Amino acid sequence: MSTPGLRGGIERFGNTVGRVLNRGGSASAPRLDLSHNIILYLEGISVSFDGFRALNNLSIYVEAGELRCIIGPNGAGKTTMMDVITGKTRPDVGSAWFGQTVDLLTLTEPEIAEVGIGRKFQKPTVFAEHSVFENLELAMAGNKSVWRMLFAKMTPEQHLRLDEVLETIGLKDHRSARAGSLSHGQKQWLEIGMLLMQDPALLLVDEPVAGMTPQETERTAELLVSLAGKHSVVVVEHDMNFVRSIARTVTVLHQGSVLAEGSMEQVQNDPKVIEVYLGDGH
Question: What is the DSSP letter of 128?
Answer without folding.
Answer: T
